[in-house]
Amino acid sequence: MMERYWKLMFIACLLVFGIGFFYLHDTFAEKELPEYTWKKQKGNDDVLEDVLVQAYIQDGSYIEETIQIAGEKSKYASQLSFLETLNGAMDNLKIKQLQQEYRGFMRGKTENAYNFYENEQLLAYADITSEWDSSRFVQSNFALEVETLSKRDDKTTSFSIKLPNQDQYNYVDVGEVTVLGDKLYVLAQNGMLIDDESQSEMRLYTIDLTNEKLMSEQRLFSDKEESSAGGREVTLLHDTDELQASKYIAVMVSEFDEDDEKKQLQLFDIEKQEEWSVDVPKKMLEQEVVAHMGDETFYFLHEQKGKLSVTPYLFAEQQMGDPIEVAISDAIDVNMMKYTKIIHDKLYLLYDMNSSKEGESNSSHISGNPPLMYVIDLKDKALRYEGELTPKNKAAKNALFMIESMYENEQ
Fold first, then answer.
1. Three-class secondary structure of residue 401 per DSSP
2. What is the pLDDT of residues 111-143, one digit of tens each?
3. In whole numbers, what is the pLDDT of the chain averaged over residues?
4. Do residues 190 and 168 touch, judged by C-beta distance below 8 A?
C-alpha cells in the first residue's frame, strides 16, 4: 500500500513539474525567439555544418532557453516535446546518438561518454559500482561492471569483477575506457585517505574479455609522490572525441610550492608498458594542449596580440612540427575562455569574448561582444573560416547569451 502511495506521489509531482516547465517555456515561445547568424569574415561557411554550439539565452526576465546552433539552423528547448525534454534531448549529444542507435544496450547506463569506447566492431562500457557502509561511513564493495556489444551479430556480453585492494579506496571513478585486441582497459581515478590526508591516484585495470577476468591493476600516476616536496596535481588529457581513447594515456603533471610551479606532460603506452615525459620547451607547457590521441598528436595553442600559433607535436615519434600561424582579433588574449574541438582534421576554436579562465561571468548581450569562431585545417595548415555569431533580430540583441559547450554535429 505504501509503495503504491509513493508511486502516485511521484507521478503527481512529475505532472506538476511538467506542466510548470512547459508553461514557462510556452511563455518564451509565445514571444519572438532570439535568432542568431554567423557573419563570415573569411573562408567557407560549409565548415560550420559539422559543429554545434550550445548556449543558454535569457530574455531579461526569469526565463531561460537552451539553444543549439549548427550553421544557419537553430534548435530551441521550447520547441521540444514533453518526452524529448524528459529524455534530455539537448544533453550529451554523443550519448544521445548511441541511445538512438543501440537503444537496448544503452538502457540504464550512465550518460558519461568517457565510460564508453566504440570502434567499427564493438561498443564497450565500463562503470564502477559500490555500496555505502553505514558502520564506517565509507563506500565499499567496489565492483567493475563491464558490458560489450558486438556490432556484427548484435550479441551482448556482461560481467562483474570485484576490485582488488578494497580497503584502500573511499571512491573510484572511471576516467577512460579503451579496447585493444581482446583486452579492455579501464583507467580509474581512485581516492583514498592515508594518515588522515586525502590522496588521489590513477590506476589502470586490464580485463581479459574472452575469459571475463581481471588480469592486472597498475598504479600509474598520483597527486602524492615522495619526490615532490610541495603540492602536486595530475590532469588527464582526453581526446577531443570522447569515444576514441587510444593505446596512450596522457596526463599533465603540475608540481608547485610557494615560489614556483613546474609542469610535465607525461605519456604511458599501454601495449609497451612504457612511460616517458614529453620533451618540449618549458614555455610550451604553459600553453593550452589539445590532444588528438587517434593521430598521436598534441597541439599546443598560443595566443599573442593579433596572432594564434598552433604547434603540432607527434608524440609517438617525439617530433615537433612546424607551427601553424593564423591572424586573430586583437581583442583575444590567453585569459579568454575558448572551446576547442577537432572534427574531420579541422581544429574549431570558439572564443567567448565575455569571459575569462579566471571565472569571470560569461553572460553578456551578444551584440556587444559576439563569440568568434576560427576553423583551421590541420592537414593543409590553412585557415578555413573566420567569423562571429551575431544577433539576427531584436530579441537576440536584448537577450543574454551564455555559451555552454561545443560538439561535433551528429545530426
1. strand
2. 899 999 999 999 999 999 999 888 877 788 999
3. 86
4. yes
Reported for 7-15, long-range contacts at CB under 8 A and 24+ positions apart, including other chains, are none
User: What is the rounded CA–CA span in Å between residue 208 and residue 214?
Assistant: 6
β-strand partners of 179: 184
Report which secondary-structure segment, H or E, holds 126: strand 122-133
The one-letter amino acid code at 40 reads: K
pLDDT under 70 in the chain at which residues?
A: 1-31, 60-63, 87-90, 195-196, 226-230, 245, 356-368
* Helix boundaries (H) for 130-273: none
What's the pLDDT tens digit per position in 325-337? 999 999 998 888 9
Q: What is the pLDDT of residue 146?
A: 98
For 105, 178, 195, 210, the CA distances from 122, given in Å and listed in that order, are 12, 11, 43, 14
CB-count exposure of residue 363 (10 Å: 0-12, 13-18, 19+) = middle
CA distance 48 to 128: 38
Q: How far apart are CA 181 and CA 312, in angstroms?
A: 29
What the block records as the C-alpha cell of 207 is 580485463
Nearest to 33 by CA among 65, 8, 61, 81: 65
